[in-house]
Automatic annotation (TrEMBL):
Organism of provenance: Vibrio qingdaonensis
Higher taxonomy: Bacteria, Pseudomonadati, Pseudomonadota, Gammaproteobacteria, Vibrionales
One cellular component term from this protein's GO annotations in UniProt: cytosol
Residue ranges of domain Flavodoxin-like fold in the record: 2-183
PANTHER family xref list: NAD P H OXIDOREDUCTASE-RELATED, NAD(P)H DEHYDROGENASE [QUINONE] 1 ISOFORM 1
Keyword Oxidoreductase: yes
Annotated keywords: Oxidoreductase
UniProt keyword Oxidoreductase, yes or no: yes
GO molecular function: NAD(P)H dehydrogenase (quinone) activity
Protein name: NAD(P)H-dependent oxidoreductase
Amino acid sequence: MKKVLVINANPKNQSFCKSLANKYALEAALTHDVKLLHVSEMDFEISLDRGYDTSPVLEKDLLYFQELILWSEHIVIVTPVWWGTLPAKFKGLIDRVFLPNFAFKYVDGKAFPEKLLLGRSSELYITLDTPPFWYKYFKGNAIYKQLKKSILDFSGIKNHSATYFGPVVGSSSETRQKWLSKVSKQAGKLL
C-alpha cells in the first residue's frame, strides 16, 4: 500500500483535469492511501517576489501542500497545457513550495544542490487542446521537460510516465470516457 498524492493542477473549478484526477484517486483508493488536492481550491499568493533572498511566510494552504508532499510516496500530477506549459497558479504553487531546504539544498563547493525529496515517484497526465503528437514532436514538449527535468528530477522525485490526452476541446463524450477508463486502469496497476 502506497501513500499517493493526486494533484489536479487545473486552476478552474470544473475541468476535464478534475474528472481525470477524481477518477485516478477513486481507483487508486481501492488499494492505496490516497489524498486528492485541487489547486483551484487553494488560496495563496502565486508570486515569489523576492526569489530566495528571504524565507517567505507560507500561507496555510502552502504548508498543507508541503505536508502532503512529505507524506507522499507517489505523486500524480494532472495538468492542462496552457500557452505551451503549466498554468500560472500551478507554477506559482511550485515556486512558493519547492523551496531551498525543502525540495533541495545548496551545498558549498558543489555545482548541483542536494535533492531532498528522494524516494518518491511520480506520473503525469497532461491534457491539451491540440493533438499530443504535434505538441510533443513539433512544439518541443515543454511541459514534460519542465516538470520532469526542472522540477521533479531536480528535487529527487523520479517520474515513471507521462500520458497525454488531446485534443480535449471538441472531444466527444465517448472519447472522454475512453480517456477516463485509461486513467482508471493505470491507477489500478499502481504497485
